[in-house]
Each structure stands twice: as structure tokens, then as C-alpha cells.
Sequence to fold (308 residues):
Amino acid sequence: MSTIGLATRPRRAAASTLGLVLAAACLIGLAGCAADSDSGPDTSAAGSSPASATTGSSANFRDVAQIQADGTIRIGVFSDKAPFGSVDAQGDYVGYDIEYGNRIGQDLGVEVEYVPVEAASRVSFLETGKVDLILANFTVTAERAEKVDFLKPYMKVALGVASPESAPITDVAQLAGQKIIVVKGTTAETYLASQYPDYDVIKYDQYTEATSALLDGRGDAWVTDNTEALAWTTQNPGFVTGIASLGPADTIAGAVQKGNTDLAAWLNNELVDLGKEDFFHQDYELTLKSVYGDVVSPDELVVEGGQV
Fold:
């Protein structure tokens, strides 16, 4: 659990105090901090209808005013993808995405209800209004952008390949004839299907299922986000990330239901304000540095202020 945040339970969480610590640091002269004077658009004129009045759609999203009136924002996150989003032994949600979610709740003045999602269910959870926001290592793609509205990015990503140290995969050509593990609904699945349709791909619903398959030899390699591959192999002796960057360079961003321009605008303004504090570098130090060590530089992954 975060040493500077309040406990976060699997269904409902109190907002993290990361921002308060940073603000206190400003008072003692820490450079790089800035006051959060404009955390979002004025919502005083927001309508009471869950659908956008300007779009005339039958969407079931909630705008900022409705979320604040309810006192809770529902955020879809991973529960099995440490160090980005997972549930610890105490039943608390922890990770890089969780600290971001906690800060959003704090600045909105609401509690956070974390809703566990799988990679393949992220879009549908937004479309059906089960969550207001997705913060689940969501790589921005043109196909997904047709179904959801992405926010400004907060992380850089490409694909990576994890494999046993005894039989390392260091070139994509070595994947031919191998059993390749992917998680359903990920960019790894899409990339392999489009670029290497003849490769033998084994698909799993959850990240824990994928890593278990690699550990017990049911697969020869795991293709996933390079951020995940590097984190997992660093924590699991006997495995290496033989390919640290595969396919195009992409970004990770939050997403809201298509047409929820009010919430999207607030969250994008929030990202700009957080960038003035170097919030995501602080988040990296708290949740990722102990995992990556010297293998990865923060600037290789972190995006501040929504600007790559």
C-alpha cells in the first residue's frame, strides 16, 4: 500500500494524499511545484441529464457535476497487473494507475470506487456506463478511438517480449514455430494478428493466467506492453525481456465514454495541472522505481502535462 496515500479497498477507496505531500513540499521550497488553480472547466451550468445535451445521444455517461453530486467516481482498473494496478495482500488497490486515480478523486472532491476490468472489457465497461473512466494501461489506437474518447497521454509504451533466460527470444523471427502468449483485447493480440497471422498465439483473459502459462512452460514467449514485460522479468529470475521494443511507439491514456466531453475536458485540464507538479515522476518514484531499478529511466516512460 502507498506510504503516502490512504488505504484503497477493492470496491471503494478514499483519495490518495500524494498531491498534499507535493503541495507541502512546495511550501518548503521544492522546485517544480505549482498551485492547482484551474483543475477543470466550470461545471456550474452542467445539465442534469446523463446524456450530453449537445450531442442528443442516448449515452449513459455522467458529467462532472453529476459525479460530484453523487460523491463517487467509478474508475475501471486492472486488479492483477502490478505495478500498474493490482490488489495487495491487505485488499487495497495499489500501483501507478491507482495513484493517478486517487489524485483525480481528491481534486474532484469525491471518493473513488475502483472497478476491476480485464483488457478485453475496457471498452464495453465505458459503453455501458459501468465506469466513468478507464485507467488500465489503455494504449491509444485509432480503432479504440472510434469507440471511446481518449484523454491526453500520461505514459509511453511499445510492445516487449518476455521469455525464459534459457531460451531467450531476441528477434521477432524467433517467434515463428513457438507458442506465443498474449492477453485478449490487448495491442499485442492485434499486432500479432495483423503482422504475423500464421504465428501460434495462445490467448488468455487475465494477466495472471498469461504469466502462469509462461512460468509453467505452456508457452515459449509472452508478448505484452514493454512496461509490463520489463517489470515482470525484473521480478522473476530466470526470465528476460529479450525484445524491449517491438512494433510502433504508442502512448497510454485514460478514456471516457464517447461523447462525454465535459468529463474529458476536466480530466485533460487536470493532466496539465499535474504536469506543473511533475506528478507522474513522483508517481514513478513511489510505484515503479523499486521494480525497474536502473533498467529503465523515468523519462523513457513518463509523460507530464499530456505532452509527449
